[in-house]
């Protein structure tokens, strides 16, 4: 089913009331060091923002999976390849109260419900015939108050969205019109942590982000995020999902694929400039990228590779 625009639970709160300047962003989860694929996505996001006159925000998504020291190293690596951003680095965790307020708004409009399912129960129910693969099958959607009260004694609930569509269409710079599944996504996990889909949508809207450039592993999340944005009265951003860098096995590049971080490549004798040259070439930029400014000089993402790039091991650099 296609819904062009979901109804808003309350009059548009319009996060852009304060006329925030339009912005793009890079939003790493500080769960480890950035590898070539992450750096390439960051470069693309920076280029799109700068080339279109937007501000560029660096937002550390530190609600969970935080590895000590990773945020600082991520920031240093982005600066080392020549990226800059507007304002101080933004951290997501201090905004937990704001995410809760947005969930309360949805709850007041009857658009949430408590879910007591364990992972195992969800998996079993979602594998039943006729379900949308991977989508939450709605087990807890219609529990009555008595049943909910009983289940609350067993385990704390997660909060899910009561979605009234099963799919939604977004527009992506590279993919064009893209329709993907929308299910009753988790908004708040049962340990009280705001879920990624909620936090990303609230933050993007409240930071004036109208251009979301990221890896295309998240393209399938864009429809549910745009749908949620609509429910909260936010405009959907422009999406630009760039192909990932793959490792030699064809799977998404990972640490196990060899020297893939700036630090590891430095150890082999490569400079940040060598890495930038590789990033530019792998994106499919026409001229060599000696500096990030070169990306803007000849700005033409229409010619970029739309296929994933494959990483092959870098030998020790010859002096
Ligand atoms: N923090 C997310 C990640 O590193 C990306 C979020 C986004 O760009 O929407 O996977």
Tell me about this structure:
The chain folds into two domains: about 25-90 and about 245-310, Rossmann fold (3-Layer(aba) Sandwich), CATH 3.40.50; about 95-205 and about 225-230, Glutamyl-tRNA Synthetase, Domain 3 (Glutamyl-tRNA Synthetase, domain 3), CATH 3.90.800. It has ten helices and twelve strands. It has helices spanning about 35-50, 70-80, 95-110, 120-125, 145-155, 195-205, 220-230, 260-265, 270-285, 290-295, and strands at about 25, 55-60, 90, 110-115, 160, 165-170, 175-180, 185-190, 210-215, 240, 245, 310. The strands form four sheets. A five-stranded parallel β-sheet has the order 3-2-1-9-10. Strands 4-5-8 form a three-stranded antiparallel β-sheet. Strand 2, helix 2 (about 70-80) and strand 3 form a beta-alpha-beta unit. Bound molecules: glutamic acid (GLU). Glutamic acid binds near residues 27, 29, 61, 200 and 218. Glutamic acid (GLU) binds near residues 28, 29 and 214.
Keywords:
Glutamyl-tRNA Synthetase, domain 3; three-stranded antiparallel sheet; Rossmann fold; disordered N terminus; 319 residues; binds glutamic acid; alpha/beta; 12 strands
Predict the CATH topology of the largest domain: Rossmann fold
Would you identify the CATH H-level superfamily of the largest domain? HUPs
* CATH architecture grouping of the largest domain: 3-Layer(aba) Sandwich
Number of domains: 2
Measured by DSSP, the beta-strand proportion falls in 15-25%
Helix and strand pattern: EHEHEHEHHEEEEHEHEEHHHE
Global Rg: 21 Å
Shape estimate: globular
Report strand order across the widest sheet.
Answer: 3-2-1-9-10
């Amino acid at each position: 089913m296609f819904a062009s625009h979901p109804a808003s639970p309350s009059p548009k709160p319009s996060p852009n009331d304060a006329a925030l300047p339009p912005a793009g962003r890079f939003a790493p989860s500080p769960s480890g060091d950035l590898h070539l694929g992450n750096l390439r996505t960051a470069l693309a996001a920076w280029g799109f923002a700068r080339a279109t006159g937007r501000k560029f925000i660096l937002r550390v998504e530190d609600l969970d999976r935080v590895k000590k020291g990773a945020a600082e190293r991520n920031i240093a690596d982005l600066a080392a390849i020549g990226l800059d951003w507007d304002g101080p680095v933004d951290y997501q965790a201090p905004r937990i109260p704001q995410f809760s307020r947005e969930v309360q708004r949805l709850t007041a409009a009857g658009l949430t419900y408590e879910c007591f399912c364990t992972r195992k129960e969800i998996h079993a129910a979602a594998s039943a015939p006729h379900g949308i693969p991977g989508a939450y099958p709605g087990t807890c959607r219609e529990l009555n108050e008595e049943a909910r009260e009983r289940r609350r004694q067993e385990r704390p609930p997660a909060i899910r969205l009561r979605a009234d569509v099963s799919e939604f269409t977004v527009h992506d710079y590279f993919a064009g019109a893209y329709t993907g599944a929308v299910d009753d996504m988790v908004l708040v996990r049962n340990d009280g942590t705001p879920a990624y889909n909620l936090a990303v949508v609230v933050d993007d809207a409240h930071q004036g982000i109208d251009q979301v450039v990221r890896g295309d592993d998240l393209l399938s999340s864009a429809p549910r995020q745009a749908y949620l944005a609509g429910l909260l009265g936010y405009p959907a951003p422009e999406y630009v999902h760039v192909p990932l860098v793959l490792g030699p096995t064809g799977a998404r590049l990972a640490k196990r694929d060899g020297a893939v971080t700036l630090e590891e490549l430095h150890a082999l004798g490569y400079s940040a400039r060598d890495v930038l040259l590789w990033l530019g070439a792998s994106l499919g930029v026409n001229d060599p990228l000696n500096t990030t400014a070169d990306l803007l000089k000849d700005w033409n993402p229409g010619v970029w590779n739309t296929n994933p790039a494959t990483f092959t091991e870098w030998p020790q650099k010859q002096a």
